[in-house]
Amino acid sequence: MLTPRTPVERPAPAAAAVSPRGARRTALRHRLLTGSAVLLLAVIAERWFLASQPFPGDGWAAQIGMSHKAWPIWEITRVYQQVGRPLVAVGEVALLLGWLWQRAGRRETHGLLIVLLASATCGVIKILCGPTPLWMVLDHHVGTNFPSGVVTFMTATVGYVALVAWRLGRRLLPLGLTIAILGAGPARVLGGQHLISDVLGGYMLGSAWLLIAYSYVTTQARGWHAKARWRVPTLETLD
User: Fold this and answer.
1) Fewer CB within 10 Å, N or C, the chain?
2) What does the pLDDT look like over 148-202, one tens digit per residue?
3) pTM for the whole thing?
């Protein structure tokens, strides 16, 4: 006579231990995403504030924008004006994509596509909200002003390339790009294209998407594509 077997209870598999490095990476990701959310809320709050009253310093910025400029300052403002041209922006993005493809990797190239959403968000805000009340009464106003599209693009896209370059060990390139980003806001105000509130909103909106992209880049990829790279083959790699 066969006796039934007694079921043997197998111990549950122990949870995989989280390494200190993984815990730090997770904490950093949470901080970056939290900072991005705070900046996005700040952009919304600023636009709501501008709907009822002018931002401190905007009146002075409007006077500066309509005043006469020296030749070097005027030329600098014209350079930043060209950055916002659609065809020029497409060329800039293509150049940055090529650099990231060759120097960084696939994940870093994907990050550039993320920061480009900053410009799309800027366009949506302009369509939904329109120009600010102060901008509408100015004689030289053209189109919608908040937030500054050039400053948003420079902060998010150029700032992202500067971060990637810094992670790759470069120092002069991030320094030059940072100077260009910091000069975008004053140039837009001096050129009369924007007010102080516009460039402040552009810096915050661009920084919000920059933090999101940086969080994506610092997240370790899983699976076979973790070490995948889009690199141009060289003679050394073909040997």
Assistant:
1) N
2) 999 999 999 999 999 999 999 999 999 999 999 999 999 999 998 999 999 999 9
3) 0.83
Q: Greatest CA separation found in the chain? A: 108
Distances from the Cα of 198 to the Cα of 105, 110, 166, angstroms: 34, 28, 28
Q: Which residues of 76-106 are buried (b: 16+ CB within 10 A; e: fewer)?
A: bbeebeebbeeeebeebbeebeebbbeebbb
Query: CA separation (Å) from 138 to 61, 142, 148, 158?
Result: 11, 9, 17, 31
Would you state the structure tokens that stand for residue 150, as one six-digit string? 């050039």
The tens digit of pLDDT for each residue in 43-81 reads 999 999 999 999 999 999 999 888 888 888 889 999 998
Domain coordinates in residue numbering, the chain: 30-221
Q: State the average pLDDT for the chain.
A: 85
